[in-house]
Structures are given as structure tokens and as C-alpha cells.
Amino acid sequence: MHIANKGVIVTGGASGLGAACVRLLTEAGARTTIIDFNTETGTALANELGEACIFVKTDVTKEEEVQAALQAAHAHSGEINILINCAGIGVAEKILSKRGIHTLASFSKVISVNLIGTFNVIRLASALMAENQPEGEDGERGVIINTASVAAFDGQIGQAAYSASKGGIVGMTLPIARELASLGIRVVTIAPGIFDTPLMAGLPEAARVSLGQQVPFPSRLGRPDEYASLAKHIIENTMLNGETIRLDGAIRMSSH
Ligand SMILES: CCCCCCCCCCCCCC(=O)CC(=O)SCCNC(=O)CCNC(=O)[C@H](O)C(C)(C)COP(=O)(O)OP(=O)(O)OC[C@H]1O[C@@H](n2cnc3c(N)ncnc32)[C@H](O)[C@@H]1OP(=O)(O)O
Ligand SMILES: NC(=O)C1=CN([C@@H]2O[C@H](COP(=O)(O)OP(=O)(O)OC[C@H]3O[C@@H](n4cnc5c(N)ncnc54)[C@H](O)[C@@H]3O)[C@@H](O)[C@H]2O)C=CC1
Fold it and tell me: Which residue's CA is the closest to the ligand 1 atom numbered 58?
């Protein structure tokens, strides 16, 4: 799919990987909508990028808020052609530790935002994509990109909730791609490794340094623009569909 003049929604687009996608795709001529619940950072980025980019304060777990945000995005760009799901949170909690037993609340919260939130936006955005005119020889109507994590495959100690949420995103990628294929809507998931974003800042510095050193090559944290670059390629390469792509410098995380 060509990007210029397309309607792009990025959840979690106010920070980190999502913000890099908003920047890159706006610069490529798309009309972008940032869906995020951080008003300060979302508004600042939309103002920086100008008229082609708007911010809508939204919690992806809330059906009505997502519906309202999609309507605003549709009004802003005329169509919804591309969705990038980046909204997500992390948690570090062991099942059993000196701190006690892993709470159900924290597990449920991570699943709610990362997995259910992603699904909530997919189901509502794909309904709008289905209304698009098919484009080009393939008759494409839309592209959905989700964000899992290497933790879906090599989760560390303390990542039961987070890995489960990301494993769920990996697991639903193919069935959703199969369902939406007849509409010409592609579904691809990126599983990033260790990227230098505010989310990772939640880990102790020693853990971040250790993780960066575990990356075989390049032995460093990834840059958000490198994630955005893959997302842009997925949008432009129609043969990519139904797959989860690791973007991780060949890291296979240690147990902790
Ligand atoms: C709402 C608050 C949020 C807090 C910040 C959350 C930030 C989360 C960021 C997530 C970013 C995700 C980015 C991404 O998608 C890519 C990644 O996943 S990067 C990997 C991120 N890694 C983690 O998130 C790890 C989370 N876990 C922890 O931080 C700690 O394990 C935890 C704080 C939960 C517990 O720490 P602590 O109680 O201090 O235990 P230890 O860490 O010291 O030890 C754990 C356990 O391991 C045993 N152990 C020691 N050495 C080894 C060894 N060589 N092999 C195996 N096991 C070892 C050690 O004995 C401990 O076992 P016990 O049973 O406790 O004795
Ligand atoms: N940074 C990394 O190393 C990796 C990150 N990821 C995933 O990439 C995605 C983006 O992460 P980062 O850019 O690193 O984090 P970030 O913390 O910089 O950005 C996440 C954004 O999501 C927003 N958000 C959180 N919950 C929300 C909700 N309920 N509704 C709407 N917006 C919400 C936050 O306000 C924030 O702006 C997340 O899903 C994360 O799990 C995956 C692998 C590695």
C-alpha cells in the first residue's frame, strides 16, 4: 500500500515506538491520528507535526473511547487505511517472591491493555477499513500492524503477565489475517527486542545495560526509528501477511 494521503492510526503513538511511526508516516505524506491516553505528550507531538497529525485522548481498553477516536480519525483523514497498535504497558512481578503472591489485578491489567486493547482497536478499525474502496491490482483495503515482543517467546523471570499478553497478540495474528483476507486487509505483528524507549526506562539501569549487551549484533538497544522503518516496509510490501517478525538483533533473552 502506498502511504501518501492515507489515513493512519497509531495507538500508543504519543511515545517511543508509536511516536516514531507517527513521525515517519506523517513525513511520508500520511494523515495521522495519535490514539493515546497521555494528553501532554500526544498533544505536543501532534502540534509539532502540524495539521496532518491530530491527537485524540483515548484508552484503548474502552470501547466508547476507541469508537469516538476512530470517528475523529475518519473525519481527519477521510478513510482509515493503516492501523499500528503500539499502546502497551509493562510489569515485572514474580508469581511467588518476598513481596508475596503475584496479584490477579496486575496480571489482568497487563492483559487488558496489551491484548484486549489491541483486539478492541482491531475489531473497530477493521469495520471502517472494510468500507474502503479496494486499491491497486490486489484490491487492498487496509493494513494492521500489531506489537508483540520477544518476551512472547523468551520471557524472563517476572514476565508471566507481560509474556502472556504478547503471546496472545502473536497467537491472534494469523486467524485475524485469515478472516480479513477476503476484504483485502493484511495483519502483521512485529516482535521487538530491546528498544530505547520510556517503557524500557522502567527497568533498572543494570538490567537495561545487561539486556543491551545480550544482543549479538548490533550489541545495543534498538532505536524507535528502526521499528518505524520496519512498520513502513510492512505497509508497502503487500506480500507480508499473517506473520510475526522479530526485530531484535538476534537476542534470545536469558532467564533473568
Ligand atoms: C508497574 C511497575 C512497573 C515496573 C517496571 C516494569 C518495566 C517492564 C519493562 C518491560 C519492557 C518490555 C520490553 C520488551 O518487550 C522486551 C523485554 O521483554 S526486555 C526484558 C524485560 N525483563 C523484565 O521485565 C524482567 C522482569 N523481572 C524482574 O525485573 C525481576 O525478576 C523481578 C523484579 C520481577 C524480581 O526480581 P528479584 O525479586 O530481585 O529477583 P531476582 O531478579 O534477583 O532473581 C530472580 C530469580 O532468578 C534466580 N536466579 C538468579 N540467577 C539466576 C540464573 N543465573 N539463572 C536462573 N535463575 C537465576 C534468583 O534466584 C531469583 O529466584 P528466587 O526464586 O527469587 O530465588
Ligand atoms: N521498548 C521496548 O523495548 C519494547 C516495547 N515493546 C512494545 O512496544 C509497544 C510500545 O512500547 P514503547 O514505545 O517502548 O513504550 P512507551 O511507554 O514509550 O509508549 C507506550 C505508549 O502507550 C500508551 N498507552 C499505554 N496504555 C494505554 C492505553 N490503555 N490506552 C492508550 N494508550 C496507552 C502510553 O501512554 C505511551 O504513550 C508496547 O506495546 C510494548 O509492549 C515490545 C518489545 C520491546
Answer: 256
DSSP reduced 3-state for 195: strand
**Cα(31)–Cα(27) distance, rounded to whole angstroms?**
9
15 Cβ below 6 A of ligand 2: yes
Q: How far is the CA of 15 from the centre of ligand 2 (A)?
A: 7
- In three-state secondary structure terms, 209 is helix
The three-state (H, E, C) secondary structure of 140-164, written as one string: ECEEEEEECCCHHHHCCCCCHHHHH
Ligand nearest to the CA of 154: 1
204 lines ligand 1 (CB under 6 A): no
Sheet strands side by side (includes 142-147): 53-57, 31-36, 7-11, 82-85, 142-147, 185-192, 244-247
pLDDT digits (tens, 9 = 90+) for 117-138: 999 999 999 999 999 999 999 9
Distance 197 CA to ligand 2 centre (A): 9
pLDDT tens-place string over residues 183-204: 999 999 999 999 999 999 989 8
192 preceded by a cis bond (ω within 30 of 0): no
